[in-house]
């Protein structure tokens, strides 16, 4: 499993984390959208984000253009505000952005370290080998990988889940390219849909929760609409599947010492983050970092056990495990990308662009606007899109906030490039799962998208 891909794509959903990320709540940014410096900043952002989209072609890490763009754009903000006599306000806005980025980075760093540790302890490899060894038909593997993706992604995030389930498909059907392509589409849709009804399933839901707009338990109202979003295209594709059996395998992977304990610690850490936020009104990042501290203490224990093994047949070399190795394996390009995009979008907010978009987009009908947000996330990705929505703070009901959370989370499934899971699987299943193979079934995914919205409007009508 390639963990740099795992967190690399995850990046495009994170920016909606905080509702007031771009400007201090007591300050209304001036409308400088038609100014020379404002237009220059917008152009710089478009160029930088175009380079991000072309990362696979250019082999230019996504963090590099946005970090450079952020610095230039904030110089433009400083010059524009100086002309208006608002020089001191620039530091206030920028400090606010940096503070929220710090919270976001630490939260993700803790989550990444847990996932890396579980991967190193072979938790994911053991699950994959267990599924492969069951001898199920290809038809049932299609449904089981989709179902597992839907219910694992709310905890393990949609990218991790997609990579794990795709590894199962490739292991059992490497000689069946059409089956793997359809299976990958199923997994991408299921992982994105599963992530939409949990604060931990996707970066966008995480941001909405941390912003305090939707409470932890209220996300569960999206369970049925999310299930519809996955089940409809899966059912359609199932009629066209290869229904044979894969080649039998006897592969067995054993979880390393402490692997299951790490899984339990991760679940407890998630619970701690929820309790810190709901009961003590503390930032969830504090609960995550506390759990990371516990993991590091347990890592010390594992290291001591390996340095003084009681079992002479211990498979691992003495002293091999080191929790700081898992910290180092965090996807720093992703974390730096968040820094760049948060500051870039913050600069656009300082020029008044987000207020302008909010006025145009949400002035007619919030339902239509939120559906459009989901369609945009298939192309632009849900990170900057959702972040912009949270920054604009449109006056919406809880039901509408849940709707935009749903559409931003599952809208990326419409195209293979629209979500972290899709981009990651194009790399992992290269030659099997492509933009064109996904586009072939986009109509079925779009039908699921439309029906999931209708399901939300019907089931959660009292919240709208």
From TrEMBL:
InterPro entries linked: Cit_transptr-like_dom, NhaD-like
GO cellular component, one term: membrane
Ranges of residues in domain Citrate transporter-like: 70-290, 327-409
Keyword Transmembrane assigned: yes
This protein's record includes keyword Ion transport: yes
Membrane-topology descriptor: Multi-pass membrane protein
BP term (GO), one: sodium ion transport
Keywords: Antiport, Ion transport, Membrane, Sodium, Sodium transport, Transmembrane, Transmembrane helix, Transport
Transmembrane segments: 34-54, 66-86, 98-118, 130-152, 158-174, 179-200, 220-240, 260-278, 284-302, 336-356, 368-390, 402-429, 441-459
GO MF entry, a single one: antiporter activity
Pfam families the record matches: CitMHS
Tree of life domain: Bacteria
Major location (coarse): membrane
Compartment list: Membrane
Record NCBIfam families: NhaD_1
Family as reported in the entry's similarity comment: Belongs to the NhaD Na(+)/H(+) (TC 2.A.62) antiporter family.
Protein's recorded name: Sodium/proton antiporter, NhaD family (TC 2.A.62)
Originating organism: Thiothrix eikelboomii
Organism placement in taxonomy: Bacteria, Pseudomonadati, Pseudomonadota, Gammaproteobacteria, Thiotrichales
